[in-house]
């Protein structure tokens, strides 16, 4: 179990993650997984929580996911545990909104990795946060985050009708190529 006890920012004095994220982190045997950097993956959730005290890095997942949980499109042992943690993090009101794009991008990378079994398990973890992804599309915060959320939702064929509705309703929140006049998700062959 990864030690992620002190979730307070020394500068802000606020919690960085809620109890649900901490519980999800503790559900996984991070110390028994080999990280992409060649050591135990125990540092991954610790580095993730620590990163939340700053701004998201330009390179998505830099310092905690990239080259640790995935290397390019290759998924490493902690991929599924990280996907579950990202799904929990997307529902956490304590995590700053500026991190949502990065969390969704990491989750998307995990769900589309080359290792089919691991990628499928990551998609199952992402299935638990579908409403968070829809909220991102509807929010209008950033086109990038909405696009990643939209593309992640296309991994769930049973969401085709609802996603089509959101695609039309919130078309201005999506990039041109994902708007229904350019890509009708309801007619796409999934």
Describe the model.
It is a single chain. With 190 residues, the chain is mainly α. Helix content is 44%, strand content 2%. The chain contains eight helices and two strands, in the order H-H-E-E-H-H-H-H-H-H. The protein has helices at 19-26, 43-51, 79-90, 100-111, 116-127, 130-139, 143-153, 160-169; strands spanning 70-71, 74-75. Strands 1-2 form a two-stranded antiparallel sheet. Strand 1 (70-71) and strand 2 (74-75) form a beta hairpin. Helix 6 (130-139) runs antiparallel to helix 7 (143-153). The longest helix is centred in the middle third of the chain and has 12 residues, at 79-90. The protein is globular and about 50 Å long. Mean pLDDT is 90; it is low at 6-14.
List its traits.
globular; two-stranded antiparallel ribbon; 190 residues; mainly alpha
